Amino acid sequence: MPPSCCGYLSQYTHHHLVAFLLTFFSYVLLHASRKTFSNVKVSISAQWTPSIRNDSLSPGETWGENHLFEDEKQATLFLGALDSIFLFSYAVGLYLSGVIGDRVNLRYVLCFGLCGSAAVEFVFGTLTEWLHIYNIYLYCGLWVLNGLLQSAVWPCVVAVMGNWFGKTGRGFVFGLWSACASVGNILGAFLASSVLKYGYEYAFLVTSVVQFAGGVVVFFGLLTSPKEVGLSLESETGLSPVETDTDSHRPLMSDEEEEVEVEVEVYGRQHQSIQQPDEPLDEAPQAIGFCQAFCLPGVLPYSLAYACLKLVNYSFFFWLPFYLSNNYGWQEAQADRLSVWYDVGGIIGGTVQGLISDFLGKRAPVLATSLALAMAALVGYSRSPNDQLINAVLLAITGFFIGGPSNMISSAISADLGRQEALRGSKEALATVTGIVDGTGSIGAAGGQYLVSLLESKLGWMCVFYFFVVMTGGSIVFITPLLVKEVRAMWRDRRAMRRQL
Questions:
Q1: For residues 82-99, b (16+ Cβ closer than 10 Å) or e, as one string?
Q2: What PANTHER family does the database record attribute to this sequence (predicted)?
Q3: Which domains does the chain show, CATH number per domain?
Q4: For position 465, what pLDDT does the model report?
Q5: Which pLDDT belongs to residue 241?
Q6: Contacting residues for 497 by C-beta, under 8 A, at least 6 apart
Q7: CA neighbours within 13 Å on the CB side: how many for 231?
Q8: CB distance 227 to 281 below 8 Å
């Protein structure tokens, strides 16, 4: 039986808390700025299409001098294409940045991604509007660059978290931590809706400035590994981390004083073994190769499952405010605020499902159950009436069963895969494996965004939701071999326990 939550916390120092918070808010700020684009699509579409002309007052060229497209449908298709362009470049960047993250200081890569992406978003959304520069090729080029820069962030923050938090309680800790994307979506929605009345360019301005400042804080404040303060990496067998510097160890929660004496004895024995000349502390483990990481057990099926699931999750991310405004006729600011309920459901889902998977000791059964219920939730949400309260409740339920599994695969499961026994002692695979899983997921999501805009324009939103149901079912299919294996293992363990009784 896994330890209690107090048992989890008693292992950790204030350094663990700082690493948790800095990586958490790094991705919060990144997702807040990313969410801005989806929250202002209606405003951007209106800016890129011509206004109603009145030739008696002014020549037609003046009324449509800024327009890129003839009508709203063309603008919508281009917005979908921009989403796909971003995700394809993001996917390619994830494969590269994961490999780079295992070979270069994670803090440098993370800071470069945050600050560089903030600068690109400022140019894309704010500077082009201030200077009245409207060019399709410029927008595409900037969004390719933005995808590459943003791809540097996720593998790095997962690798840092994997360094600081071992397998004990990983489902709960990472489930709680992976709420960073949903919290970022909520923050981005509120920031965008609060300044949208002044123009969409100010939404980009606010989020890009905050993100750049966050990158500077990360550069000067983040410790990427316990070794930087004299602590060793926590064992993947679930044992507590070994202290190598008593001054740096300040527990967040202490148990009884008797347990402290036991810890001192354990520390003494461990410290003696650490000082052995045969095991130098400063020797850095060798980074794993890309192909070798791809062939690790579980990486391919979870990557393919995540490709299907991320398509659905990111379709909600990119298109939900637009759908609420377009389908129900609600104002853009109202749609932005209502869309946060999907992320609220995702936050709760990731934490609860991660905790359940810790107690079961298995991830796949929890994942498959949630995905099966997600298919029913999607069908239910597609038939939501024109009522904001009912819509919010259904959104939260849908987010619980879709966002929860998505958070599990991209964080806790990726960390499990990057620290499995098949690595034979190599600890420099976390960023590479995370990049592979998230990169494959982003390829699926990239292809899906243009399909969403195409299906919506040709067949309507109902067909889009049926498409989501099919892709969610595809996720279950890909993890079925792992599900069967883990269920059999659980059954064997249960039978063994019965025999012992």
A1: bbbbbbbbbbbbbbbbbb
A2: MAJOR FACILITATOR SUPERFAMILY TRANSPORTER 16, ISOFORM B, SUGAR PHOSPHATE EXCHANGER 3
A3: 5-50+67-227+285-500 (1.20.1250.20)
A4: 92
A5: 36
A6: none
A7: 25
A8: yes
Residues with Cβ < 8 Å from 320, sequence gap 6 or more?
Answer: 38, 335, 339, 342, 395
Q: Say yes or no to pLDDT of 261 above 50.
A: no
How many residues are given for the chain?
501
Task: Say if residues 158 and 431 touch (Cβ distance below 8 Å).
Answer: yes
| Rounded CA separation 60/274 (Å) | 79
Reference 348, options 423, 403, 286; nearest CA is 403
Q: What pLDDT score was predicted for residue 427?
A: 54
Per-residue pLDDT tens for 114-132?
Answer: 999 999 999 998 998 898 8
Cα–chain center distance at 382:
25
Please give the pLDDT value at position 467. Answer: 93
430 vs 364, residue with greater confidence = 364
C-alpha to C-alpha distance for 85 and 282, rounded to whole angstroms: 42
pLDDT for the residue numbered 120: 95
Largest CA distance in the chain: 92
Whole-number Å distance between alpha carbons of 143 and 133? 15
Flag whether pLDDT at 297 surpasses 70.
yes
State the average pLDDT over residues 366-385: 92
Spatial neighbors of 152 by CB under 8 A, at least 6 apart, are: 93, 97, 100, 101, 109, 110, 112, 113
Task: Compute the average pLDDT of residues 269-286.
Answer: 46
CA-CA distance, 118 to 214, in Å (whole number)? 10
DSSP assignment string, 263-279? HHHHHHHHHHHHT-TTS
CA separation for the pair 227, 412 (Å, rounded):
22
Question: Are 174 and 412 contacting, i.e. CB atoms less than 8 angstroms apart?
Answer: yes
Residue ranges in 102-152 assigned as alpha helix (H): 106-122, 128-130, 136-150
**What amino acid is encoded at 16 in this protein?**
H
**CA 413 – CA 435 distance, rounded (Å):** 13
Name the least confident of 128-142, 307-321, 407-421.
407-421
Q: Which two tokens stand for residue 394?
A: 């259904």
Helices marked H in 180-282 — which ranges? Answer: 180-195, 200-221, 257-274
> What's the pLDDT at 148?
93
CB 143 within 8 A of CB 82: yes
- State residue 471's pLDDT score: 94
In three state form, how does the secondary structure of 312-347 look? HHHHHHHHHHHHHHHHHCCCHHHHHHHCHHHHHHHH
